[in-house]
Amino acid sequence: MIRVALVDDQQMVRAGFRMVIDSQPDLTVVGEAGDGDAAVALLRTTPADVVLMDVRMPGTDGIEATRQVTALPDPPRVVVLTTFDLDEYVVAAIGAGASGFLLKDAPPEEMLAAVRTVHAGDSVIAASSTRRLLQHVAPMLRGAAPTTVGGGTELAELTPREREVLVQMALGATNTEIAQRLFVSEATVKTHVGRVLAKTGSRDRVQAVVLAYRTGLVSPADLLRDA
């Protein structure tokens, strides 16, 4: 059973999310909060696997709440919800440690898929935002890179093939696209992705992509060439 926490300042929105989530046999809502401070307090005492976090709330907003929640011991994965498909929200959410980003008006089945996908260790970013996100985040990550390729201990254990897979992940490719580009099966790609996450200590694909740019394995120029 996947345990879900709902954080939104609108009670009707939370009620709608709860109705949809609790209708699923593999999902259950374990708690609700109406603002960021309440969310952090809730998640300190209530175990959850995935948090649906509104980005715009009075007081402590969803970005800061995400930062605090992902810093907790054994933290849940956070999917940030917003009514605005704006790059700055996506960048801020991922920078705060979110595993996903989804528009609040997405169809219910898309929200449910996001919860399950993030719980499985994959990332969820609205398709329309993926490339713009990478274009915005990559230069900032590279500029703050403390390590370089070859010297970065986080990447030292990766095989050449695993590095190839990580590069493709950082370019925004899906598992299907990676399989086509590397001429392997999708099942093989999933295995490689799992090993990349394990060896780099990344909680999910988003963290692995951030690491790829931060260490210089991939640069913003690579992203532009791949466009």
Keywords:
227 residues; Rossmann fold; Arc Repressor Mutant, subunit A; 6-stranded parallel β-sheet
Notes on the structure:
Pfam families: GerE, Response_reg. GO terms for molecular function: DNA binding. Residues 151-216 form the HTH luxR-type domain. This is Two component transcriptional regulator, LuxR family. Keywords: DNA-binding, Phosphoprotein, Transcription, Transcription regulation. This protein is an alpha/beta fold. It folds into 2 domains: 2-125, Response regulator (Rossmann fold), CATH 3.40.50.2300; 145-215, Winged helix-like DNA-binding domain superfamily/Winged helix DNA-binding domain (Arc Repressor Mutant, subunit A, Orthogonal Bundle). It contains 11 helices and 6 strands. Strands 2-1-3-4-5-6 form a 6-stranded parallel β-sheet, with helices on both faces. Strand 3, helix 3 and strand 4 form a beta-alpha-beta unit. The radius of gyration is 17 Å and the shape is globular. The protein starts with a strand and ends with a helix.
**Element string (H = helix, E = strand):** EHEHEHEHEHEHHHHHH
Strand sequence of the main sheet, in spatial order? 2-1-3-4-5-6
Mean pLDDT value: 83
Give the proportion of residues in helices: 40-55%
Low-pLDDT ranges: 143-151
Shape assignment: globular
CATH topology of the largest domain: Rossmann fold
Alpha-beta content class: alpha/beta
In CATH's first tier, which class of the largest domain applies?
Answer: Alpha Beta
Number of helices: 11
Report Rg: 17 Å
Number of strands: 6
